[in-house]
Amino acid sequence: MKRVTFAEFGGPDVLELLEAEEPHAGPGQVRIAVRAAGVNPVDWRLREGQILGAHPIELPSGVGQDAAGVVDEIGEGVAGVEIGDRVFGEGSSTYSEFAVLWAWARMPEGLTFEEAAGYPSVVETALRIIGQVGVEPGQTLLVSGASGGVGSAVLQIARDRGIAVIATGGAANQDYLRGLGALATTYGEGWVERVRRFGRIDAALDLAGSGVIPQLVELAGDPQRVVSIADLGAPEFGVRFSGVAGSMPDALAVAADLISGGKLHIPVEKSYPLAEAAAAHIDSRAGHTRGRRVMVI
């Protein structure tokens, strides 16, 4: 089978599409024939050698953790799933023709493989950071860099919970953010004053890592009311950097319910074949994504 891999840390040019041995499902796992794999910032952060303390890896390494596909092998002790089921979930080395998952759920009706592959990590992250920042129904959450996958999930989950959202994003994404129920404004010069005009901020999330932590602390009034998933220097300002995942099975169950209920939809902005994994990482690192980027097999 073909799999994207890298043998050294570095830029996108270290990624190679090579022949590899097929993985097999161990106890508590399933193997899928991968149809699509989500592209996440953690993928290129690990390829660059970042965040290895939280996500240790051995070289050579595969790439990717989110995927959607068809179950073709079931490990010992696994119940409630059958060969041929269409599932989405989390595993390892998912930029591949076959991958092992250790957390999964059946795909909701009407969802394509490309769409499904974009949900696992972003929904888990959105649920985790909304909980960590402590925002409650009736309060207002500021989301910096809100148009990507995590931001799209945060805005819709917050709306479902009765949390008002003020979102910053690029000029081209303002209508998109408003369509998800947020009060939207652009980042760049004067953004703090534009946000203040919307009213009180109870908590804030940094999703883009664009050097705005001090301003978010100022707007929220307390560093304990700010969480970042993108700025590794956030703790210098007393702000939590959230990089350790919570329960993926729980997140997948919530995602499936919200999707089935028409309360959550994350569009796929662009799809890439495995041979273009480097381009996918370049685009992901550049930001400005509206929704998700995925690999297709």
Kindly describe this structure.
This protein is α/β, with parallel strands linked by helices. Helix content is about 25%, strand content about 25%. The protein is built from 9 helices and 15 strands. Strands 3, 5, 6, 7, 14 and 15 form a 6-stranded mixed sheet that branches. Helix 3 packs across helix 4 and helix 3 crosses helix 8. Its main location: cytoplasm. It is found in: Cytoplasm. Keywords: Cytoplasm, NADP, RNA-binding. It holds the Pfam family ADH_N.
SSE map:
Elements: E1 2-6, E2 16-19, E3 30-38, H1 41-47, E4 61-62, E5 66-74, E6 86-91, E7 98-106, H2 113-117, H3 120-133, E8 140-144, H4 149-160, E9 164-169, H5 174-179, E10 183-186, H6 191-196, E11 203-206, H7 213-220, E12 226-228, E13 240-241, H8 248-260, E14 268-273, H9 277-286, E15 292-296
Parallel strand pairs: 8-9, 8-11, 9-10, 11-12, 12-13, 14-15
Antiparallel strand pairs: 1-2, 1-4, 3-5, 3-7, 3-15, 5-6, 6-7
